[in-house]
Amino acid sequence: MAFPASFSHSASLQLSASFHGERTTSTLLPSSTSSNSCPFVGSQLAFSASLRGSKTMSPSRLVVYSRRLSGLEEAMKMRREREQRERSNTKFTRPLPLRRGRVSPRLPVPDDIPKPPYVSTKELPELASEHQFHDAEGIEKMRAACELAARVLQSAGELVKPSITTNEIDKAVHQMIIDAGAYPSPLGYGGFPKSVCTSVNECMCHGIPDSRQLQDGDIINIDVTVYLNGYHGDTSKTFLCGNVNDILKRLVKVTEECMEKGIAVCKDGASFKKIGKRISEHAEKYGFDVVERFVGHGVGKVFHSEPVILHHPTGNDKGGTMVEGQTFTIEPIFTIGSTDCITWPDNWTTLTADGGPAAQFEHTILITRTGAEILTKC
C-alpha cells in the first residue's frame, strides 16, 4: 500500500544546495502537499546553501546559479509534458472519467483473528521511525504473510473481467484472507472502509471498492496487504481488463520492469538512492515519469515505517544503506500525462490531475547479503 511522501501535518519541504563552480546539486526531502492531493497537508519551504572550497561567492552569484538551474529544470519539465500530451493525443483515447459508485458497509472479521493496533482507532498512524529488521523466526513469519498476500493477489487478478465490480473483488479478497486466519491490513487503517485497494484507470492508488463495473479496456491495480501472525505482507499489481490498447499495455509493462530494476540493485550495504536512480533510468527510455507523491516503505510488524523508498532521483540523496534482514516495499507509479494528483473528498482515492491512466506494481523484499529476496511471490 503506497504511502504519501509527507508523514505528518507539521512536515516541511527542505531544499539544500551546494555550489562548486557551475555544478549544482540539490536534495529534496519528503514533504506535505496541498490538502486536495493527499491525507497529509501543509508545507513550508526552507532554503540553505553551503559553499565548497576556499572561494567565497556573493549573494548575487548565488541567485544567478539558482536561476540557471531552475530554468533548465523548467524547460525539461515543459518538454516532458509536451511529449506526454503528444503521446496521449495521438495514441490514447481516454475512457469516461471515474465516478464514485455505491460503497457498501465494511465487512466483518471474526473475533478470534488477531488485529493490528490501529484498528481500534480511526486516526491515521504516523510513519514509524524505526527500520524493521528480523531474526530467523521473524523472517519466516514475514515469508508466510507475504506468500499469503501474493496468493490472494493472484486469485483477485483472476477475477478481473468486464462487468465485475470492484466491490465483488473486495468481498472475494476479504473472504480469502480471513479464511487463512489473517486480517486484511487496509480495513480500518486510518478509517479506510474496505479490505483491499482497487485503483482503476486514472486512479493512482488507494481506490475504494464500490459498485462500479469494470469496462472492457480498463486497467486496475489491486493492492493487497495481509496481517498474519503479527506481520504485514504487502503487494500490488496492475491487471488488464479485456481488450486493452497497446499504449496502456506498454505503460503496465514498463511499470513492472521499473519495479524489477529497482529490486535488482538491492543488497546488504547498497545505497537506497540507487533504487530511484535505476527506476528513472529505465523509465526515461520510454518517456514515462514516475509519480513522486507516493513512496515505498518499511514493512513488517508495523504496516508503514522507515526507510522511505523514493522511486525517483530528485532529492534522493538522503543517504542510508540497506542492511541484511531488513524488509521494505518498492512500488513505483507511472502515468501517461501529468504526474500531479488530486484526491476525492473520501481522503483516499487519488487520481491523476489530467485524467491520464496510471499503473503501479509492488513487492515486499528482504535484504540479503548478496541481493534481495522477493517475499511476495507464490
Question: Can you put this structure into words, describing what you see?
Answer:
- It is a single chain.
- This protein has helices at residues 59-91, 136-158, 166-179, 246-264, 273-284; strands at 3-4, 13-20, 23-28, 45-51, 183-184, 197-200, 203-205, 219-228, 231-240, 289-290, 294-298, 305-309, 327-330, 333-335, 341-343, 350-352, 358-360, 363-367, 372-374.
- Strand 15 (341-343) and strand 16 form a beta hairpin.
- Helix 2 (136-158) runs antiparallel to helix 3.
- The chain is of the alpha+beta class.
- The protein has five helices and 19 strands.
- The longest helix is centred in the first third of the chain and has 33 residues, at 59-91.
- The strands form six sheets. Strands 5, 6, 8 and 9 form a four-stranded antiparallel β-sheet that branches. A three-stranded antiparallel β-sheet has the order 1-11-12.
- It comes from Linum tenue.
- This is Methionine aminopeptidase.
- GO terms for molecular function: initiator methionyl aminopeptidase activity; metal ion binding; metalloaminopeptidase activity.
